[in-house]
Amino acid sequence: MQVNRIEDVKTYDAPGHFDVETLRLQGLDVSDAKAFSIGISHFQPGGGCDHAGSPPEKAYVLLSGELTVITDGGEVTLKPMDSCYIAPNENRSIINRGSDIATLLVVMAS
Questions:
Q1: How far is Cα 104 from Cα 23, in angstroms, rounded to an integer?
Q2: What are the boundaries of each domain within the chain?
Q3: CA 30 to CA 6: how far, in whole Å?
Q4: For the chain, percent helix, then strand, then coil, each to nearest 5?
């Protein structure tokens, strides 16, 4: 078992993201998980990410606040405990249009 305590987790820069604090909780360079990584992102009001795709499939779970996820097929506003799936290379952007910090749990295939 590998435990990563939240007080020991470090931030990292996520390409194309702005006004967001990103933390890697499991996988990649912080644990031995090979099939996935888990991160948490705190989006400031007005924060988000550019419209682009990337190879890993992703699942988002909104923990608090509200976030709008925009794909080429439309947009949806996630509320706490809503989740969505982003397919490999699916273009998407995220924006926090609210006035509160929004916290998103991100699970990505490795």
A1: 10
A2: 6-109
A3: 12
A4: 5, 55, 40
Q: Which residues of the chain have pLDDT under 70?
A: none
pLDDT at position 20 is 98
Alpha-helical (H) ranges within 5-108 are: none
Architecture of domain 6-109: Sandwich (2.60)
Rounded CA gap, 14 and 24, in Å? 10
Cβ atoms of 60 and 84 closer than 8 Å: yes
Q: Other CB atoms closer than 10 Å to residue 76's CB: what's the count?
A: 13
Which residue's entry shows tokens 């020991």?
8
Say if CB 49 and CB 93 are below 8 A apart.
yes
